[in-house]
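call fold(seq) -> tokens
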Amino acid sequence: MQFDPHTTLALFKANLELNFSLCDLLRRNALRWSEAQNRMLDGCAKDIESAVTRTLDAPDWQQFGVNAGDLGWKALQHRNCAALHLAEMAVANHSALIADIQHVFSRWQQDSTHALKQAGSAMPVSAALESLLASASNMGRIDSK
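ret:
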């Protein structure tokens, strides 16, 4: 089966758009990780700075000792919170990336199927290719149950 130049161009464009979209998704995913990390670091730095400032502003040795002891506890709490936020961020970023990848591949599949169907209307297509196109069209649909 030979494809006309319009079909091969449409398939090439669909593949190029797929590659571009995947690169863009990876770039946006890296930005989400970077932004989340910056928010987490900023929050930890502000809390530690506040605890240190309270320690430095202590009026006497007793309050200084209480505040200094509180610094260790605050650091432990921040490590636990940071680990929890990291896990939540990982799940959220992974879920967003997977959903975006599914969307991109679905769009690529539709574009490729459309190009092949257009070629099929211009020339005879074998029964095997027709069934492949039909199954590809059905695979792109996701049941929402």
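Helices lie at 5-56, 61-122, 127-139.
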